[in-house]
Description:
Layout: H1 2-48, H2 52-77, H3 79-89, H4 97-108, H5 115-126, H6 130-133, E1 136-137, E2 143-144, E3 148-154, E4 160-166, H7 170-178, H8 181-191, H9 197-212, H10 214-227, E5 234-235, E6 248-252, H11 259-262, H12 267-288, E7 290-292, E8 300-302, E9 308-310, E10 316-318, H13 321-336, H14 340-349, H15 361-368, H16 373-376, E11 381-382, H17 385-396, H18 403-408, H19 413-416, H20 420-432, E12 435-436, H21 438-445, H22 456-472
Parallel strand pairs: 5-9
Antiparallel strand pairs: 1-3, 2-3, 3-4, 4-6, 7-10, 8-9, 11-12
Helix pairs in contact: 1-2, 1-8, 2-3, 2-4, 3-4, 3-7, 7-9, 8-9, 12-20, 13-14, 17-20
Amino acid sequence: MAATGFAGAVAVALRARVDAQRARRTATLVRLGGSRGMRYATMNARSRFADEDTAARLRTRFELETAEQVAEVLGNMKGAMMKLGQMASYLDQGLPEPVREVLSQLQADAPPMAPNLVAEAIRAEFGRSASELFASFDPEPIAAASIGQVHRAITHDGRDVAVKVQYPGVDAAIRADLANTDLLFTMMSFLFPGMDPGPIVTELRTRLSEELDYRSEAAFQRRFAAYYRGHPTIHVPAVVDELSGERVLTTEFAAGASWSELLTWPQDQRDLTAETMYRYAFGGIYRLGLFNGDPHPGNYVFGADGRVTFLDYGLCKEFTGPEIENFERMIRAMVIDHDMGEVRRVWADLGILTDPDRFTDDALRDYFIHFFESVMIDETITQTPEYASESVRRYFDLSGPHQDLIKSVTLPSFMVIVQRINLGLFALFGELHATANWRRMAEEIWPITDGPPSTPMGERIREWELATAKRSAGVD
């Protein structure tokens, strides 16, 4: 009885500690919101009677001060809040320059673990040391991210591998944040103003929880690797099963050029790279039912012939058949049939528009057509940084011409992660100034069109698809 009472007292004390931490983190964001509101009111009042240059300087100062506060708060919080801030920092194009600069610090400020912590994490996972598990293991990381870091190693059978080790304690910090609804909703109001935070919070809870378990990441990576095995330009490193677990993930090591190197290459090589990235993002959805939702250039390794190795599978989304059919309904209505009445019905059925009858067909077309612009017409188009900037503005600019529509748009949970295409992938294409006939390429990928190959790469991929189908059917 005494032992039971003591255990109960410990449980109560631990719960009180977690509740107190949760309350402190929520109060921090509430104070941040109050401070931001007061400063906004002051800035707005001063700008009302100021000339244009002075008003612009006041807005820039307000943006910088807000960004510095948010970055400081998120950086100190760690956990899910730090992760969400880093995700927001991927939205390079379209954010005010001061915001971009400060949020980018969240990507750069991931300090490496001490070697003894890495050793302890590996031993805790496998019950053996790194020196026992690997023929050689480099204690210096080759990459660091928000929840883990990567080390190079060689297996006892001579394979060159990358070993991702999760930071000790990061899972507890993130899970505590994900359980705090008030905290998440408050954070979403800063990162995604004007949108209903409910579906976003629901989806991010699921995706971030999966990202903490490297076994889930390994399962997604195996599926991508199996599907793309032998592909002409898409490479997915194999998972080393016997050296992977919940907090450690070992995969085939992939060498190649970095994003900064790619940006110095001739335009034809950059175009080939963009074509591979495009086919991977959309082909995964329509051919495999999977989407890798982290289009950060640090997760790619590049070859001069258009070959791209896709490295990170921590933030993946699996789509159901009906969800893919809904994507196809959107494409058919908007891109193929140009039927705004059907567009309105699809958007309303999916809950994207909360008040669909409030807006005219012209208003809906003017707002939504931007996101389909590259595939609306059959011609060669160059992606630009300006296009990516406009995409971000159409999500977040509550002071622009589309403010009423933005306030009426809600993302269903199944569409939250896929918007990383509009907010991340096309920003990368803008940096590359990638040029292609995106409509013809898309028609190859969309099941509702199943178009013929439109590029030399498309021809090679069609040959690979036919050969793969024959092998699966047991035909020589």
